[in-house]
Write a structure and sequence with these properties.
alpha/beta; Nucleotidyltransferase, domain 5; single chain; 13 helices; 6-stranded mixed beta sheet
Length: 452
Amino acid sequence: MSLLAKKGKAIVAGLKVLGNTVAGISPSNLRLLYKTVVIPAITYGSQLWFNPERPNKVLIRQLEQVQHQALKQVAGAFWDSPEEALQMLTYVPPITTTLHKLYRSAALRIPRLPLTSEITRRIPADYLPSTAHMTQWIIPPKHIPFARPRANETLSPLTRMVTTFNSHTERAEPFHTQNAPHHQRLSSDPFNGWLTIKPEACSKKERKSLVANQRIWLEIQTGRNTLVLVTDGSLTNKAAGWAVTGIHAGHTLFKHKVPLAKRAGNHDTEMMALAHASKLVYETMLGELDIREFRIFSDSTAALTSIFDPGPHATQHASLMFRKNMIRLFTSRPDITGTLLWTPGHGGLDQMKVTDKNARAAANMKCRDSGYLLPHFVSRSSALTEVETMALKEWRDFLEDLEDHDKKIFRPASGFLPFARARRLPTSSSSDPQVVQAHQPKFHVYSYTDVH
């Protein structure tokens, strides 16, 4: 750790050459350099020695000294400026918060590893899929060296890291059979020329004409051999859900609304809606031989872009389901064609408005855990959001603790009042770390999306 701290101090010293309070690069660029160069250097391998339950204060203090020196350079402050004040000025969290975030982010990369990975083989069986019969791989043979628990510890570093995320967190399959180069692609049989995906979204000026053309197409197709499906997903404070509406010959064939899970994202619902639509297309067109064309409308460009991609990405299982249903459909009915199109979610087709209303109703359903399709599922997007939320909460709690127990750091006479509350001071201030009232240099408001 002392070597990493010396390396960080050397990099910080090099920042002095790039700029100061008079000339050189701006404070915002200095801050960017600190986040992208210094933090990765001093926190390299921190997941191996950092214990969230029992942080090593001696090691953390060495990193705090590096950060304090860097923030004085970034803010152009005096060398005796308090570290906490500089963190507020530059909107850089304490190094402990950064270590916590890096630790949790590293833990979320474990579910993205293949089941045959050496790391996956060493995690508890509870964190593996129930379909993976790998009990014999959990504990490697004794001749294979790996970090085993010490005498005074109950968990190994890897097991401790795994316990930071839910065992039902979404997994990725980087070596799935459909990822093989020889497997079917959109440009290969049986899809080439028969399945088309148009995910491009138009500008706001062109949306009216696009919606008008789509409405005209729907009117013309009334009574013809075309199946139309409209999909949409919704995310509320309660849960996430999706809806699918099927239309044929001007009549509504079905309306499905499905509550997905409490801890899922909007992208997950859009992907699951497309996967559900592919299943409905397969079942409907096998029974109705007169239908020779289908179109699926979605308001999510990201979902349309990745729905046919079997590679590892968010909600990969939905892509695999969609791909499987399409292979079955075009193998059974080689005389049909299909198209996936983007349509505006608001101010667009009337069918999209109905589907959007059903999706919100699905997300707002008052279900018990058994009422959701995946009651214990935790999507990767939801887990990453929780990591960001927890980091901000830890920083906010740290600041509130300073206000309550160490008010001498910020004296009213200094003009720096980040913790002033409305009940004590009439000025508009907040305890939120994004709101700062001070005599400070010209800084932009930064978003704490990535501490490294």
